[in-house]
Amino acid sequence: MKRYDFWKLSLLNIFAAPARSVLTVLGMAIGIGAILAVITLGDAGRAQVKSEMTRLGIDRVWLTAAEGETLRHGDAQLLASALDATATEQVYAPATARAGRREESCVLVGCSREYMDLMGTGVLEGRDLYAAEWQPGARSVLLGAALAEKLGVEPGELISVSGVPLWVRGIIAQGNELSQVDASGAVFLPIAVFCEWMGQSVHEIILSVPEGVTPQAVAAMAQDVMRVKRDMSVEAVTMQVQIEAANSVMSIFVDVLKWVAAICILVGGIGVMNILLVSVRERRREIGIMKSLGTTEGQICLLFLLEALVYALVGGCMGLVIGIGLIETAGRSIGLTPVIRLGDCAAVFLAALAVGLVFGVSPASRASRMKPVDALRDE
To answer: Fewer CB near the terminus (10 Å): N or C of the chain?
Structure first.
């Protein structure tokens, strides 16, 4: 028999039982699609976590006083000098803002000029404060966008906070979500002015991480400096630890899903083996006649392996389509931007072919060893 004849005969045998063949192919396709979707979405999820954490401040260290301790205005400058890093302080308190007849509860935030850069807080309208406006005695502030809208004020207008008149110089956007303050509903004024009103204690210090130094090293050095210079303990938070923890949890979750998808592929392979074993039993007479006409064991084996390969090829192609559809749908629904890599598609497609051929060996071997006399005895 020619190679063309083997392919033709394999396809005829597959189409002889269309319903059974479709179910077998679907079993393989679902497994292939699932594992492609898990791999791609898992990678996209890890990338999203890293991107979000980086945006929030992977190159920053957040310091707060340990229980029973108090950070004070000037500690940021102490740390900046000792560590050769940019440092800024933040302190806040509840307040009431008034503009005309409108009155809104807000958060009064005392901060330094460096705070806006480190926290990624940009000016939407108006301008930032001039250098002189960051000094003690100044009466200029920046207003969160949501609070400005509620009060109905614009840059250049006057508001009062807890009875003190202040000039609004700019409207700012929401800053870093890791801050303990919602910037959109806050009034930002120089920390020197805040401390004149409220005292010298501050809530947190944010440090930038110098190039070539890890956040963990900066955190440890900052704790040492505060222990030696101020005889106090501080707690440090870095984003690298959170990223590693998030990636670890996600990797476990993705690995579990990969195993589930792999089991689906194996079930598809078992389906291929089952349908071929049934085919061998149903085609005993055909196999006996072929052997009587001189078809070799190798050719019989090849015939059934080609059928297994066809199931795997079709299942693999359908699986890629299903997987891409799952990736696009899931990506849109959960806000991910997955990248479908050709290497991943090729790997899962080759896995489908390998599974199909491996599970096709046993039926093909059984058919090839069948003796013509035994095959024709029951006919």
So the answer is: C
Domain boundaries of the chain, sorted by first residue:
3-52+243-377, 70-232
Regions of the chain short of the pLDDT cut 50: 4, 178
The pLDDT tens digits of the residues spanning 53-74 come to: 666 556 778 888 888 888 888 8
Rg of the chain in Å (alpha carbons): 35
List the beta bridge partners of residue 206.
Answer: 62, 88
The full 3-state SS of 41-107, as one line of letters, equals HHHHHHHHHHHHHHHHHCCEEEEEECCCCCEECCHHHHHHHHHCCCEEEEEEEEEEEEECCEEEEEE
The overall pTM is greater than 0.85 = no
Centroid of chain to Cα 142: 34
Amino acid at 200: Q
Q: Which residues contact 186 (CB under 8 A, 6 or more apart)?
A: 92, 106, 107, 108, 109, 143, 144, 147
pLDDT > 70 fraction of the chain, expressed in percent and rounded: 87
Please report where in the chains the tokens 């009875």 appear, as a residue.
163
Close Cβ partners of 49 (under 8 Å, ≥ 6 residues apart): 243, 246, 247, 250
Burial class (CB in 10 A: 0-12, 13-18, 19+), 238: buried
Q: Which residues contact 144 (CB under 8 A, 6 or more apart)?
A: 106, 171, 172, 174, 182, 183, 184, 185, 186, 187, 188
For residues 149-188, b (16+ Cβ closer than 10 Å) or e, as one string? ebbebebebebebeeeebebbbbbebbbebbebbbbbbbb
Q: Which residues contact 244 (CB under 8 A, 6 or more apart)?
A: none
pLDDT tens across 67-103, in order? 888 888 888 888 888 888 888 888 888 889 999 888 9
Rounded CA-CA distance 255/249 in Å is: 10
pLDDT at 167: 92
